[in-house]
Write a structure and sequence with these properties.
Elements (H helix, E strand, L loop, with lengths): L2 E2 L6 E5 L2 E5 L6 E2 H36 L21 E4 L4 E4 L3 E2 L16 E3 L5 E10 L5 H5 L5 E6 L7 E5 L5 E11 L5 E11 L4
Amino acid sequence: MGTITAAAIGTVVAVDAGTIELRVVGDGLNSTELQTAVDRLEAENAELRSVNDDIQAQIDDLQLQAEPAAEDPDRAASPSATPEDSTVRRATREPIGLASEGCLDLDSDAPNWDVAGEGDICIWYYQRDLVGTNLTVLDEEPTLADCEAQTDVRDSVGAIGSLVGKYICGWTDNGRLARIGIVDTSQGKNGRTESAMLQITVWEQQH
């Protein structure tokens, strides 16, 4: 096989990191040797591309791991979701107010819980008692199972002003269990309770 003169040769192989130019010096170079050199450079170029792809894949993985997990807005009100969350029919995200003489329909889908003069839970006008159906007062926040297990039940649990910080388990007209947290109360000029702030959870009917 013949030779290729140095003056006639100008072979350039491109790689990711830059450009490698093969310059032939001397009186001549065997074409087979030249092809071997080009093949070697092309193999090195392919290896560099493979290494570059591996590094990029690792960078992508690290970026995904660094991204914060999207927060589920439906669980925002509950820092630690529990299995019983799946049985919740309705719950308040923030405490809602109930004035004396007012009642809430805990089976309602209305935004205001169909507040009216009668319902599942009421503040009785005269004594400001909290009244309902099969109510129980608890010091700690009860679970669905806790409310189901209550046997000391009554339809009136005393003045709502004395229940701040406590929880009430009770039943709705449609046979659902509910948990009512007494967050706060407000008094009028005569010192009587005018309204209460309630945190409510209503569970689906249990079969």
